[in-house]
């Protein structure tokens, strides 16, 4: 069989911690997922990363992989004669020689390390993991999305095959970016009556033109005219649930935040996060003669110095 350097595929050191492996996988899965990636070889790289992660995330599979030692990528090699002794059958076929086994198939068949397992005993199905990119609107309201997965499954002869799966998955409202959702029983099918595996969805919430999400809170930039900031005003502000009227106090400064309670994303406790409107002073770029005259009059009569704090600030 040909050797694959799973650590190199994921850009990891062989001493990487389980947390580093998980974090790196999520980053690479988002980068190369065929539905969102613009990389030329995205689908191939995505499959390589998935294959590497399936082995390295499992402590016993990883330990068995490390026992194979280091080999140049793509080099033909043969595991030691007694390397697979005691492993559960089902992934290799009956008496299949190592040369006929793909490295991914080899480790897909390893369950429970070197502990012997009855060939007729139930074997749980494999857990699947997939990246899902949704809009902020879908995250806010919840959504039912269609997923098409080509997932590995063992056939009745114990060989690994890629089987297409079409699933409808419900995304709960209020889901945050980076959330991992578990869908029970939607992974690989079990063998000999074993339970089906689970499907884990890594949620990525796409950027929105107006709102920025931070957990369950939302932020937006609120442009204010100079006179609105100086004199105070009542302005309309968009929220995911509709527009509201927000009272801006006199003397509002750029960068000042206004909190609107309960207008953010849903929380697990049934309540909602908050919406924060951040004030920005917008200056008109086109003035007619009357407006220009008023601005000049204000400039001549005002004693306000916005740079007073800079006076004498020399090194």
Account of the protein in words:
The strands form 4 sheets. The chain has a 4-stranded mixed β-sheet. Strands 1-5-4 form a 3-stranded mixed β-sheet. A two-stranded antiparallel sheet has the order 2-3. It has helices at 6-10, 18-32, 42-56, 59-67, 103-108, 136-141, 226-231, 289-301; strands spanning 128-134, 143-154, 160-171, 180-183, 199-205, 212-214, 217-224, 233-237, 244-248, 257-260, 275-281. The longest helix is centred in the N-terminal third of the chain and has 15 residues, at 18-32. It is built from 8 helices and 11 strands.
Brief characterization of the structure:
Helices cover 24% and strands 23% of the residues. The protein is built from 8 helices and 11 strands.
What features would you highlight for this structure?
3-stranded mixed beta sheet, about 325 residues, alpha+beta, single chain, HSP40/DNAj peptide-binding domain, 8 helices
């Amino acid at each position: 069989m040909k050797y694959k350097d799973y650590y190199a595929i994921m850009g990891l050191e062989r001493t990487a911690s389980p947390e580093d492996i998980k974090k790196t996988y999520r980053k690479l899965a988002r980068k190369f997922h065929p539905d969102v990636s613009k990389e030329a070889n995205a689908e191939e790289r995505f499959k390589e990363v998935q294959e590497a992660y399936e082995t390295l995330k499992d402590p016993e599979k990883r330990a068995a992989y490390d026992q194979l030692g280091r080999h140049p990528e793509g080099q033909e090699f043969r595991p030691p004669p007694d390397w697979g002794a005691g492993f559960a059958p089902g992934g290799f076929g009956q008496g299949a020689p190592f040369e006929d086994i793909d490295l991914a198939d080899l480790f897909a068949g390893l369950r429970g390390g070197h502990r012997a397992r009855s060939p007729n005993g139930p074997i749980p199905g494999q857990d699947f993991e997939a990246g899902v990119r949704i809009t902020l609107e879908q995250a806010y309201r919840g959504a039912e999305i269609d997923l098409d997965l080509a997932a590995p499954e063992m056939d009745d002869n114990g060989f690994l095959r890629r089987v297409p799966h079409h699933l409808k998955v419900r995304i709960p409202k209020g889901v945050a970016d980076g959330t991992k959702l578990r869908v029970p029983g939607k992974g690989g099918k079990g063998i000999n009556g074993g339970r089906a595996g689970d499907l884990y969805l890594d949620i990525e919430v796409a950027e929105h033109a107006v709102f920025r999400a931070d957990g369950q809170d939302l932020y937006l930039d609120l442009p204010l005219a100079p006179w609105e900031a100086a004199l105070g005003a009542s302005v309309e502000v968009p929220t995911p649930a509709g527009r509201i009227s927000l009272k801006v106090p006199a003397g509002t400064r750029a960068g000042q935040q206004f909190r609107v309670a309960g207008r953010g994303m849903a929380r697990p406790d049934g309540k909602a996060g908050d919406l924060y409107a951040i004030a920005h002073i917008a200056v008109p770029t086109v003035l007619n003669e009357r407006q220009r005259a008023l601005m000049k009059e204000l400039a001549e009569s005002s004693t306000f110095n916005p740079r007073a704090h800079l006076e004498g600030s020399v090194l």
